[in-house]
Amino acid sequence: MGVIRVLTSEDPAAVATHGKAIEERYGLPTVSRCIPGQPHGIHDDDSEARAEPKIVDLARELADAGARALIISCAADPALQKTRRAVGIPVIGAGSAAAAVALGLGSRVGVLGIRDQAPPAVRAVLGDHFAASARPDGVHRTTDLLAPEGPEAVLEAAAGLVASGADTLLLACTGLNTIGIRPLLEERLGVPVVDPVLAAGLLASYAYGE
Length: 210
Known about the structure:
Helices cover 46% and strands 15% of the residues. The chain is of the alpha/beta class and 210 residues long. The strands form two sheets. Strands 2-1-3-4 form a four-stranded parallel beta sheet, with helices on both faces. Strands 6-5-7-8 form a four-stranded parallel beta sheet, sandwiched between helices.
C-alpha cells in the first residue's frame, strides 16, 4: 500500500506516521513517500495546484515499484482523478473516504479542517448531510496544529460544530491524525469522529486484495 504524503519532511518517521496508523489498525503493509518542496503541505488553492503534478509523479513511482493500491493522504483529495488515470491500481482520497464513512455514522456531519470552507471533495460526497464547517482559531496550515495551543483550538472548534447540531464530526485535515486528537474529541463531545487517514485505510483494505 503506497501512502502519498503532501507535507514534505526529511524525517522518515514523520513521513511514515499515517502509514503506521494504517498498519496498526488494518494490518496492511505500507510504504510512505512525500512530495518535494511543500514543507507546509496543502493549505490553499495555490499550494494544491503546485502539489498536483508532484502527486501524480510520485504515484507513478510507487505503482512502478509494486504498490497494489495508493492513498493520497490529504482531505482535499488533490489530483485524485488525475492520479487514477495515471496508474492502473486503486487510488483512494482521504477526504472522500472520510465523507463516505461519516455517512454511515450520522446524518448531520460537521467538517473540521484548516480552511474556511470544507473541501469540495468532502462536500460532494456528503451532499445534504453536510451540517457546517469550522476552522480552529489560529490554524491556517497543517503545521499550525503542532503548536502548543493547537489541540485546544481544535477542541473548541469541534465543540461549536456539535453545539450547532452536528451528530458526527469529520476531520478534514490528515494532520489531525498526526496530533492524535480523535479520541479526545469523542470522549469530550460524545459523537463519532471520523479520522481521514483511518477512513482511507478502511477503504484501502477492500481495494488491496490478497
